[in-house]
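mind reviewing these tokens:
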Amino acid sequence: MIYLRLLFLVFFFGAYSLNAQNLRVNVFSQTKIGSLKVDALNGSYQLHSRNGYIADFTEGQSLSIYLNSSGKIHLSRNGEFLGLYDTLLMLQSSHLDYLNFKPRSKSSLKLKARQYEGDFEISSIRNSIAIVNIIFTESYLKGVLASEAGIRCAKEYYKVQAIISRTFAGNNKFKHSEEGFNLCDAVHCQAYFGRYQGESLDLTSGIKETYGQVLVDSNQNSFPTFFSANCGGQSAETDQVWNHLLPNYLSHNDTFCIHTRQANWEKYIPKKELLNFISKNYFFDVSKKKYRDLVFNFTQEGRKTFFIHPSYGIPLRDLRSAFKLRSTYFSCEPVGDKVLLRGRGFGHGIGLCQEGAMEMVRLGFDYKAILAFYFRGSKLSLIGTQINHW
């Protein structure tokens, strides 16, 4: 047992490979954690420092963790002081073991507790507690699907989401490599807000029945996969949202999502705020009525990249970010001292439209047909086969 643990530690601090079916995911990544309470809800763990074994941590026990004035991890178990450490490792005794994490932010704000399975590395980074969850890819996918899609979808949809999320994880395994992990738990990567607690057999079946399947192109290059809640009836191209064009993603119409829950939205913005933002950031002349009218009467019948006209150099993505809009796919009209934005869709609109895919499932399309519709030019492959850039 000790020999196996030593081998694990060598692997843990050594090279990482997705093909080994392990991912390092930074959890609670969107907050600075000041202190942490950890409860062992099922099974047992071993606690290790970089220098070796510290203690066992068994079901029913609690850990208290905070950083001292020197940035060291102060560790107590059920009130018993266990020491000060640079890095704390928490290692499962079995695959079914899991823990409950109750963090408190640096601002003393209580955060919602989450349960996670797998192993953990806890360290101090920039005077904050960082938690990295080391977990099997297929177990990670359960948490991703529950976080991204919820627990009430049909199995055929979970097959779709499992394949694109598995592909995404492989494509982005070095996204945070300089920070010591592969992926974060936020929408910057994929939402992952805890272990899946078994509410839906369709979710687990969807992952199991597509085990190891990923998307590739005709040259066996791993296919870039993205998804958002609703494209608003027309998918976006990558350079409309980011700074580069991927030829895999040409804009196309999507009639499957136009009558779903998040297909349409409205938001009022004071005219003064909108004009100030545009004039300050893009030197747009708002002193003249004809230019103000252009701002207040903007129409998108199809997706555009720039507000008003490309010659003014005002990216729609900047407006979305500045005013926290659901999408860049909107039109404007003046209403009193405000501008009414009538928008379509929710998210960047690239790749899979989740609500559109769910509607395709309802209409009887299988997961292969759905993937072919949203990821044109892709085909299914298995991780075990030769995939370029994987």
